[in-house]
Design goal:
Blueprint lengths: L1 H6 L5 E5 L6 E10 L4 E5 L4 H4 L1 H11 L8 E7 L11 H13 L6 E3 L2 E2 L5 E2 L4 H10 L4 E5 L3 H5 L5 E5 L2 H8 L22 H12 L12 H13 L3 E4 L6 H12 L5 H13 L15 E2 L7 H5 E2 L4 E2 L1 H4 L4 E5 L6 H6 L1 H6 L1 E6 L2 E6 L3 E6 L18 H9 L3 H5 L3 E4 L12 H15 L11 H7 L4 H8 L6 H17 L7 H11 L2 H24 L6 E2 L4 E2 L6 H26 L1 E6 L2 E6 H13 L1 H37 L4
Parallel strand pairs: 1-5, 3-4, 5-8, 8-9, 10-17, 10-18, 11-14, 14-17
Antiparallel strand pairs: 1-2, 2-4, 6-7, 12-13, 15-16, 19-20, 21-22
């Protein structure tokens, strides 16, 4: 027995420093030596870690332990890694007990914050810490009781939850107490939905109000959202204010996005654990994230950052959805920052000489108005914006970002559309698509060019159709093929049909051109209606500087409007001519030509502002006097300084 104890190593104590996505395991060592009783902590500890000495000493006394009456040196290594936060408290206390009693056994990861009473408080980043420990071969884990479910979600770990320092001490000296098994975390491809969210979506969207449900007349929009969810495609919804963009997105997308597989859950749970968003009752995050940041969010808030490189919204939306409502109100720099992570599915952050990479495989969904006034393309509203202002509005998104959005849909209720779609029908289609895609390494939205060539094989008719589309970019063609494959998967097919390809192309078409086409069609419709009412087709009348729309006016009204506008035009011309007629004036002794209108305007302004001019002249004189005094003082001070340096005095 003595030989076995001699062969066993002294138990090593580890903790965890959360920085970025990876973090780092920290070895906690204690040395007891002769000297004046004190506690020294080395290893780049911040204020919260240094304050742990007081919490540990109080917890020892209140837990019935005797704190060493010696000089205590505590080392947190690696020494060049900054240690922050209160999660080291329990590990430091356990390390002292370990040094006092010389416990033998396997290494153990210890996490937790100590209260003065000796009780243990929960901490963040438990899942990330346990996952890193298991990867390093450390399977024994002591965590706060409130974090047990989060730690148990890591396969291969032996977890014990504690509520006090006394419980941690009992577990530390008994290896057999670590034999607790973890829950089953085998990879699952089963497609499961959140039934509660499904029921809520049905209640909100399919309940009848005044004989209509929220989905009535929105078949095309619901279909676009359904396809986007089924293939995890990026989606842009645009429409006039109040058309239902946000309502449909907020209810359909979270409800119809299936739960994560166990493999997807591990990385998502790690990110949420590092951000401190895991609830004590949460074990592993199975629901796909749905993040909806406010329009005032900064680049750091969206992409991540800060002293510890905390995850941003695009990483918190990993394996889920990032929904930007009123996307045009976000800063242009924030929108352009999304271009790289949307493509690469990760983001690399550099802070204080350290680099970390967060996964950010998110589905981007944006909702925005079609123009500054919000009425472009609407059948019952008139857009008041110029073509130039509309172009500037859409330039905020930029062509490269829009090119990465596979589905673009204009949202508007069509009262004449009798097609029906239900939440359960959409659920069935999405379930078919996910079941097929989870047999592959990637979802359809993430297919590489090689995978597209392999899975999106086209017959002659489909190939001829896609070759005829010369007005879209190579990425646009690839997006069209991926969306078409998703449509086929929704019908439980693996081959693309011509109807799938046509529908995918319509969903990927340039939405701005489509909106301008709608506006042009609406104008032509007004002219046609005018011709039907008054028997003559009225074209817009163009004067020198204005265009007059005569739609809806009879011949007498048309004549009156034209005369009125012509009179205004003549008055403007006369005013301009009077302003530019040259007049000779004398300036600094020289004769100069000046337009008479400008000269009169200057004389009028001077008369109106004589008092202001006098006040300005007075202030100018006072300023000049003060400036002269200041220059004299500066000269005197420089002279004194020079005399001191040379040793000369008057």
């Amino acid at each position: 027995m003595a030989d076995n104890n001699a062969n066993e190593q002294k138990r090593n104590i580890y903790s965890f420093s959360p920085f970025g996505y990876e973090g780092a395991l920290v070895t906690v060592e204690t040395d007891l030596r002769r000297g004046i009783p004190a506690v020294d902590i080395v290893g780049l500890a911040d204020g919260a870690v240094k304050e742990a000495r007081e919490r540990v000493m109080a917890a020892f006394r209140n837990s019935g332990f005797e704190f060493p009456q010696e000089r205590v040196l505590m080392s947190l290594s690696p020494a060049d890694l900054k240690k922050e936060g209160a999660s080291f408290d329990l590990a430091m206390a356990v390390s002292i007990l370990n040094e006092q009693n010389n416990y033998q056994g396997e290494p153990v990861l210890v996490l937790g914050e100590l209260e003065l009473s000796g009780n243990v408080r929960p901490v963040r980043a438990v899942h990330a810490a346990v996952e890193s420990a298991v990867a390093a071969g450390i399977t024994n884990v002591i965590v706060p009781a409130a974090n047990v479910e989060e730690a148990l979600a890591v396969p291969g770990s032996k977890v014990r939850g504690v509520s006090s320092l006394s419980e941690a001490h009992t577990i530390l000296k008994n290896n057999e107490l670590f034999n607790e098994t973890t829950q089953d975390n085998r990879f699952s491809k089963e497609v499961v939905f959140d039934e509660k969210l499904i029921d809520e979506a049905i209640d909100v969207l399919e309940s009848k109000y005044d004989g209509h449900s929220a989905l009535d007349g929105h078949y095309d929009t619901a279909r676009a959202i359904e396809i986007a969810i089924a293939g995890k495609h990026n989606l842009l919804l645009t429409g006039s204010p109040g058309c239902g963009k946000t309502m449909l997105s907020q209810h359909l997308i979270p409800a119809l996005t299936p739960k994560l597989t166990n493999e997807e859950s591990q990385s998502t749970t790690r990110i949420w654990s590092l951000a401190g968003l895991m609830k004590p009752s949460d074990g592993i995050k199975k629901d796909a994230p749905f993040r909806m940041p406010h329009q005032t969010a900064s680049i750091e808030g969206i992409c991540g950052g800060g002293p510890n490189c905390r995850p941003g919204e695009i990483s918190l939306a990993h394996n889920g959805v990032l929904f930007l409502d009123e996307a045009a109100e976000f800063r242009s720099s924030v929108l352009q920052m999304l271009r790289v992570p949307v493509e690469s599915k990760q983001i690399t952050l550099s802070r204080a000489g350290r680099v970390t990479s967060y996964p950010s495989n998110f589905q981007l969904v944006m909702a925005t108005n079609p123009c500054p006034c919000g009425c472009l393309g609407s059948h019952d509203k008139i857009c008041l914006d110029s073509e130039k202002s509309i172009d500037l509005y859409w330039k905020k998104f930029s062509a490269p970002l829009l090119d990465r959005v596979e589905i673009r849909q204009y949202v508007e209720r069509n009262e004449n559309d009798t097609r029906k779609i239900t939440v359960n029908e959409m659920r069935k289609h999405i379930e078919n698509a996910f079941r097929i895609q989870r047999e592959n390494p990637h979802y359809n939205s993430n297919l590489s060019p090689e995978e597209i060539a392999e899975k999106c094989k086209l017959n002659d008719e489909c190939q001829s159709f896609i070759d005829s589309k010369d007005d879209i970019s190579p990425r646009g063609k690839a997006n069209t093929l991926k969306v078409a494959l998703t449509i086929a998967n929704m019908d439980n097919r693996r081959e693309i049909a011509i109807d799938d390809l046509k529908e995918a192309f319509n969903l990927n078409h340039n939405i701005q051109d489509r909106l301008m086409g709608k506006e042009q069609a609406k104008t032509e419709e007004r002219y046609a209606k005018n011709e039907e009412l008054y028997g003559n087709k009225i074209e817009p009348v163009k004067l020198n500087s204005v265009t007059i729309d005569l739609t809806g006016k009879n011949e007498q009204q048309q004549s009156a409007v034209i005369q009125s506008e012509q009179l205004k035009e003549n008055q403007q011309v006369a005013t301009v001519q009077s302003l530019v007629e040259p007049t000779t004036i004398t300036v600094n002794g020289k004769e100069r030509n000046c337009p008479e209108g400008i000269l009169k305007a200057l004389e009028s302004a001077i008369k109106k502002n004589d008092g202001l001019i006098e006040e300005y002249n007075k202030l100018t004189d006072d300023y000049n006097i003060l400036a002269d005094k200041y220059e004299k003082l500066v000269d005197q001070q420089q002279s004194k300084n020079h005399n001191k340096q040379t040793g000369y005095s008057d």
